[in-house]
Design goal:
The chain is an all-beta fold and 119 residues long. Helices cover 0% and strands 55% of the residues. The strands form 2 sheets. It has a 7-stranded antiparallel beta sheet with strand order 7-4-9-3-2-1-10, with no helix packed on it. A 3-stranded antiparallel beta sheet has the order 6-5-8, with no helix packed on it. It is globular, with a radius of gyration of 13 Å. It starts with 11 loop residues before the first strand and ends with a strand.
Length: 119
């Protein structure tokens, strides 16, 4: 696939990540999977987020709107629209919507969504 139109991608509410239950409402749109990366659009309601978890891939997260708190390793960051954060492979991390937020996340290398998301 070379092109993906947002209006045509099915959004789904996810309930877990890496087998751990999420808090609150998190909506995911898997926008595109390439040979080496995956691009996701994720909405976090205020107070919703992921528990601390670890992936075997690297992630880069860009905040489109809102404000999120990210913990990466032992560091805590509050990101506003336009800010970017990286989750290195194998490093424990979590994400929480401080307010209703929309983020775009790129994961590399690409992996089947089922490996890290539960619905």
């Amino acid at each position: 696939m070379i092109l993906s139109k947002n209006a045509e991608v099915e959004a789904r509410i996810i309930k877990s990540v890496e087998g751990k239950l999420l808090q609150g409402k998190v909506i995911l749109k898997p926008m595109m999977m390439g040979e080496q990366m995956t691009l996701l659009e994720i909405e976090y309601a205020a107070g919703a987020g992921t528990p601390t978890h670890v992936h075997q891939h690297e992630s880069v997260v860009y905040v489109v709107k809102g404000k999120v708190k990210m913990i990466v390793g032992k560091e805590e960051y509050v990101l506003n629209a336009g800010d970017v954060c990286r989750h290195p492979q194998g490093v424990p991390h979590s994400v929480e919507g401080v307010e209703d937020s929309l983020v775009v996340e790129i994961k590399s290398p690409t992996q089947p969504l089922e490996q890290f998301l539960g619905t």
